Amino acid sequence: MWMKRITITTIVVLILAIAGVTAYLGIILFGNYAIDEKDLIMKESTTVVDDEGEVLTKLFEENREAVDLETIPDHVQHAFIAIEDQRFFEHTGIDPRAIGRALYRDIITRSAAEGGSTITQQLAKNAFLSPEKSLLRKTEEVLIALNLEHRYSKEEILEMYLNRIYFGHGAHGVQAASQLYFGKTVDELSVEEGALLAALPKGPNNYSPFIDEERGKERRDLVLDVMHQQDYITAEEAVRLKGRTLPQERNSVTSNEAYTSYIDLLLNELETEYGFTEEEILSGGYEIVASMDPEQQIASFEKMRDSSVYPDEGMDGSYVLLDNETGGVKAVQGGREYVKKGLNYASAKRQPGSTIKPLAVFAPALETGEYAPYSMLTDEPLNYDGYEPGNLSGSYSGEITMYDALKDSVNAPAVWLLNEIGLNHSKTMLQNQGITLEEEGLSVALGGLDEGLSPLQMAGAYRTFANNGKYSEPYFVEEIYDRNGDMLAESEPEEVEVMSEQTAWYMTRMLESVVTDGTGQAGETTAPLAGKTGTSMESRDVWFAGWSPEYTGAVWMGRDNAESGEEVTSSAPTSVFKQLLPDSSSTAFEKPDQVAELEEPIRFVQINDLDADMSLGLFGADVELAWSASEDERLHYRIYRIEGGSRTLVDEVAGEADYTISRTNFLNQAEFVVVPYNPLTDREGEESNTARANWNIFSQGS
To answer: Does the active-site annotation cover 393?
Structure first.
């Protein structure tokens, strides 16, 4: 009999063992089927920092920044274990007593109301299962929890849990919650602060101190009591810590409003240049190093929102500032009231007016080698196959130097010059600076474009002058790092040689004159500045684009309805640009060693006081001429004798105010004129009054 019992017992044990092994293998197999490790990769906030490493903003679908368990203080870990799962380090993923309690309550209430009780089950639920509650789902939760314990250590499970759980107000994980509630990183949390965070996951909307301070304090104090009961803190500590106040105001984890224009363009660049979708950025936990200068970004935000800077209330505005050395965008504003994902005027194309002249006409002309800054251009009202450009002043000088045509933004010579050099030559140079034009007409010289240029394009092209003739595309992203700190990409802008250093330097000097003596005089700045104004037809668009030794930028102001306001000038954007331009460490632009300097223009003087005195010399009569000369000693003077109605050149002098003609027939009282001559332009000015040589009796015998 006893042998039979032993046999039966052995068989039962074997059956149970086989069933147990089978069940265990089933759990593992089911767990392997149910667990996709990709689901354990959490959506993590991307951090945008400046080149000094200072955080500018966070971009997220779920505001989360994962941290290692070693970063989380023990007392913070203890708070969660105490209130959520006090036997966490003892069980194998499920707590039998908790499961029994849950099943009992489900039967009593005839529903699946009881949630998972262990930390591992909560991780299983949050990572792998849908929110619905059912008996099948509870079974899946248990099986997945057991498998998680099989695959991962307790420390790994606790780390995943603390980085995944939701704390309310958009904060996921202890690091984001610490920043939100206390404005500090998790490693800086005190015991009572950790207790508050541990109090929240059970019901963030119920226990948040920002929603219900009283309930939040009760829940936190409960956590402290439980920590005492489990010997994590003493009774004295629990009493003292329950007297601590709760946070009153949440700390911002979203972008400064001033950064919105910049961040939108940065996200666009991440997608178009680096292939990162916005969804990837918002959940990938990247670190993006931006070229932004926060101080300049905020200052430009405030200035461009100031209604007093706009000459017409119906106008909007945009601003771009680039680093001359790198081409990085230091600041950008997309509009007076720019909203996220809205129309960004920094990248929107507008009619450029005369700001295109340096890019489309004068720099290309210099590059041909056939023109120089003091070359004479035709300034007449001409007809080009039906196109008749005119000067805004209504007056024409016949001819004018390139220098003065640019300084005073005269239209007729700009169109004439573009016609001379050819539109294709101009378009090629523009295309090398990221500007592609379909237009075939000479109206390009005056900014008459079908689409126009954006402030970003304008600033990028003007930086070519500042960068010794080399162009590279403006950029927002310096570097990209993954969540492990490994660099994925960095900005490597390709430089294109668009023009010679000599041409770039000549343009710098000529456009300096625009600011000091021409159309760009509005406003004040202490920095050396070269630039150009622009106004489109009906004043729908007014511009200033320019550069200092360190920065290049553009300000656009405009309106979409030409009839909505009065005609305005480019003085407003010029003044705003100068107000926003950062101080310079230089007092002047530095000329490259290998280029020739551009001389200052030589201006003619009107001579109305030529005097001619004749006196007796050693070998005949001497004629002494005298006149009022220019202070510029580079101006030449040509002395002509007038005989029989024609002029004969006697001599040419530089910087003199008198001249003596010796051995003159004393019986012939000749007439003379002096004509100023500009050696830079090879042009004569107006001749002086005619002076007849008269005897000066006081000089005889001298």
So the answer is: no
